[in-house]
Amino acid sequence: MNSLIPMVDPRVFRRLFTEIVQASKGDLDLASASLYIAGEEYPTLPVEKYLAYLNSTAEVTRRAIPKTATVTEQLTALSKHLAKIEGFHGSAEEKPDPKTVYLNEVIDRKIGLPISLSILYKEVAARNGIFLEGIGLPGRFILKYANSPEDIFVDPANDGAVISRADCEELVRNMYQGQVVFREEFLHPYNEKQILVRLLTTLKVSYFESREYAKSLAATDRIAIIDPTLNVNIRERARLLYLMGRYRDAIRGLELYLTMFPDSDDKEEIKTQIHSLWPLVASLS
Known about the structure:
Blueprint: H1 10-23, H2 30-39, H3 47-64, H4 71-85, E1 89-90, H5 103-109, E2 111-112, H6 114-126, E3 132-137, E4 140-145, E5 153-155, E6 161-163, H7 165-175, E7 189-190, H8 192-209, H9 213-226, H10 231-243, H11 247-260, H12 267-283
Parallel strand pairs: 1-2
Antiparallel strand pairs: 3-4, 3-7, 4-5, 5-6
Helix pairs in contact: 1-2, 2-8, 3-6, 8-9, 9-10, 10-11, 11-12
């Protein structure tokens, strides 16, 4: 999908992302929001072309779904088309690569992490009147059919396999060798904003591990646009600012944390960190 598209100031994509997130009182346009996230990394990103791809793929998928079919048969047909015909599959890499997170790269390369593949599956399904909810299992993101008392799940990272609740439990058990006790809350559905937070958190971690702190900070800032009260994000943002040598900004971030969470268990630790940062600020004066 590489065509001669004029470069856009990344701040435009940040503004578009902010507008779509803050304007939403309920469900939001998850595909557009995901592409606006990618736009900061790819300033020539033709957002409309990728949205058109989702629309055309949904249309082709519609013809592959039997008109008189059970929910399981519909989901199986959907997954078969996306995995076998379109060729989407999960990444086998142990460390997340940003290219497996950004929706445009997932569409172009046909490979993605569970969270990004789930967004693609969810969007194609919704265009066919099949509504799927995000489910954030520990270490794995899957989908659940929304309009049924039955527990019917889809695992996009495993060729869209249609699985049961028992399969979800086994998935977690296998990933953590039985060290994580399965809890009912693991199956609580994510709304669109929570899905975006998980997507951005994956980006944040990926860039942090590769020491691309500015890009990790950009992901952190977009999480704050969605939820400015997320305490972990505020604390991690201050850590990134410290690693970037922005000591005064790091202090402001830690002071904000104490203001917002004055009774936090780590308040003394935060105060100590602030105290240790002031000499660094003085050394730069």
